[in-house]
Amino acid sequence: MRWTLVVPVKSLTLAKSRLGAAGPGHPPRPALALAFALDTVEAALACPAVRGVAVVTDDPLAGAGAAALGARVLPEPPGGGLNAALAHGARSVREQLPDGAVATLNADLPALRPVELERVLGRAAEFPRAFLADAAGIGTTLLAAAPGMELAPAFEGRSRARHLASGAREILLDGVDSVRRDVDTEADLRAVLALGTGPRTAAVAGPLRSASRPART
Predict the structure, then answer these.
(1) Residues in CB range of 109: below 8 A, 6 or more apart
(2) Contact 86, 163 (CB under 8 A)
């Protein structure tokens, strides 16, 4: 089974507020958010299980960057929030591929490795709906719906519990840290740098990489 991924990217000026204000030696939040998103999209497109990526955004820089990588760019629906944007993206995908498998993927997975994403999607294909919890075990980084199944996203906050309650099966796999490790805080950022990130995040993060592994190859 091959999947189309829906990746939401909010306005870069509003993104990643929990990373704090930029100071000496710290990269600006919008630059980090853009680097995260483009490294995520590039890695997703390199996954053999992925047939395409649809990026839902109204940010012109993020949209242009994603399009240059080969993603389809969709405008956000007005006033609906994250879950509405994801549902809109899934509907748009299914308008073109009525029998397609659709999954959402967070835009802040800059250490994402295609081989690990392929394992997660392979397991997701065993269920009508399935999700992968984040590294903290509280949120969700991926939600998948098989052909003919509604995505029914319930992201933000304690989304792991909501997705479980909705009947989605939790994907339990070891060795897929890059698909679980999203970035909300400074500690998260250092954790993905230790895993090894894509080239844009590695370049933007600069001095923060001093104690981390080289960039993802």
Answers:
(1) 36, 39, 40, 43, 141, 178, 179, 181, 182, 183, 192
(2) no
Which residues, including other chains, have CB under 8 Å from residue 56's CB and lie 6 or more apart? 6, 7, 8, 9, 74, 75, 76, 85, 86, 88, 89
Q: Residue 190: which of 120, 119, 110, 133 has the closest Cα?
A: 110
Specify the CATH number for 3-209; select among 3.70.10.10, 3.50.50.60, 3.90.550.10, 3.40.50.150.
Answer: 3.90.550.10
pTM over 0.85: yes
Q: Tens of pLDDT along 182-197?
A: 999 888 999 999 999 9
Give the relative orientation of helices 60-69 and 29-45 as an angle to the nearest 10 degrees.
20
Tokens 């098989």 correspond to 146
Give the mean pLDDT of the chain.
Answer: 91
